[in-house]
From TrEMBL:
GO terms for biological process: cellulose catabolic process. Pfam families: Glyco_hydro_9. The active site is at residues 68, 77. The keyword Hydrolase applies. InterPro entries: 6-hairpin_glycosidase_sf (IPR008928), 6hp_glycosidase-like_sf (IPR012341), Glyco_hydro_9 (IPR001701), Glyco_hydro_9_Asp/Glu_AS (IPR033126). One of its GO terms (molecular function) is cellulase activity. Its EC number is 3.2.1.4. Keywords: Carbohydrate metabolism, Cellulose degradation, Glycosidase, Hydrolase, Polysaccharide degradation. The keyword Zinc does not apply. It comes from the Eukaryota. Residues 1-89 form the Glycoside hydrolase family domain. This is Endoglucanase. It catalyses: Endohydrolysis of (1->4)-beta-D-glucosidic linkages in cellulose, lichenin and cereal beta-D-glucans.
Length: 124
């Protein structure tokens, strides 16, 4: 089991993340209000419609068990304090070893429903 979304054959599919768990405007053009997001999408047992590739979640519980359910926010939320530590560690490892053009972390967000892909570039 990988706790990094999109890495390996088995990874979390129900992140506790609004952008990942609510459909894209390209697929669901009707307005989704704040309460609609909670009442309609939060409790859904389906995988998130948007894959938040590269996000790292909290991992297993104290009994080394992992339940892929977005309602389990303490284990399925891609928090800043987890992801920042990973990015900072990787940045320290590659610092000075490659050129500025190669020193680019390419994060990709894929939309599972319409196969549209958007990319964001972050320089370390």
């Amino acid at each position: 089991m990988s706790y990094m979304v999109g890495f390996g054959n088995k990874y979390p599919t129900q992140l506790h993340h609004r952008g990942a768990s609510i459909p894209s405007i390209y697929n669901h053009s009707a307005k989704i209000g704040c309460n609609d997001g909670y009442s309609t999408w939060y409790t859904s047992s389906k995988p998130n419609p948007n894959t938040h590739v590269g996000a790292i979640v909290g991992g297993p519980n104290s009994n080394d068990q992992f339940t892929d359910s977005r309602t389990d926010y303490s284990h399925l939320e891609p928090t800043t304090y987890i992801n920042a530590a990973f990015v900072g560690s990787v940045a320290a490892l590659i610092n000075g070893q490659i050129s500025k053009e190669e020193n680019c972390l390419h994060l990709q967000m894929s939309n599972n429903y319409d196969n549209k892909t958007t990319s964001n570039m972050a320089y370390i």
